[in-house]
Write a sequence for this structure.
């Protein structure tokens, strides 16, 4: 199967409203992803492994997020923040439709989290913190950094390699163990693309490859 054939298949599954055949096909694609027969070219091998570790729901959601958004849903100018928001809304709507079709949708996520992880202790701009007995669980909202800010100092509180970009790496988001090891407990992580102005070499792409 070619890259074009794959995304045509995904588009058909979405258009058909995630019927039984479509859901089975998505599960098959996820299985191929686990078996390294389906590769996302934008991922390094370790990133592909990390995505697979999240399970089939995570893999399928990642696949659906890569589907082409219909042009009539992207009315804002190319490269604009508003256009990025329109694309994100379209992606979220597709994933929500799939999640409801497969029975993994939760209507009241705050209540479900408290039932699963314990009483909520605190809430910040991007996170909710739960008392889980001997551990503390922090739920992060991934849309936190999409607030329309202009980057005035791209190296402020950031760490970057040519491939990975970490931001919000201030002292409050790090823990140092008695042995001197540093643990990152809260940061924004993205692929380092040239537009972040930190010598990034990564490119946004939804190209896939099938390995027989």
């Amino acid at each position: 199967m070619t890259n074009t054939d794959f995304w045509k298949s995904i588009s058909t599954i979405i258009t058909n409203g995630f019927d039984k055949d479509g859901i089975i096909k998505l599960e098959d694609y996820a299985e191929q992803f686990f078996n390294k027969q389906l590769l996302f070219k934008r991922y390094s091998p370790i990133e592909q492994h990390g995505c697979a570790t999240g399970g089939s729901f995570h893999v399928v959601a990642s696949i659906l997020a890569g589907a082409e958004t219909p042009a009539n849903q992207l009315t804002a100018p190319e490269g604009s923040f508003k256009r990025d928001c329109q694309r994100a809304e379209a992606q979220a709507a597709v994933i929500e439709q799939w999640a409801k079709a497969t029975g993994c949708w939760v209507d009241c996520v705050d209540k479900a989290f408290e039932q699963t992880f314990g009483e909520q202790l605190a809430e910040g701009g991007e996170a909710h913190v739960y008392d889980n007995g001997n551990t503390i669980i922090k739920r992060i909202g991934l849309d936190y950094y999409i607030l329309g800010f202009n980057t005035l100092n791209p190296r402020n509180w950031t760490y970057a390699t040519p491939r990975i970009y970490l931001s919000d790496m201030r002292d409050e988001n790090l823990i140092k163990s008695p042995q001197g090891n540093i643990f990152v407990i809260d940061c924004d992580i993205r692929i380092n693309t040239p537009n972040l102005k930190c010598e990034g070499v990564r490119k946004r792409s939804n190209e896939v490859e099938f390995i027989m």
Remarks:
- The chain is about 35% helix and 20% strand.
- The mean pLDDT is 85.
- The longest helix spans residues 81-102.
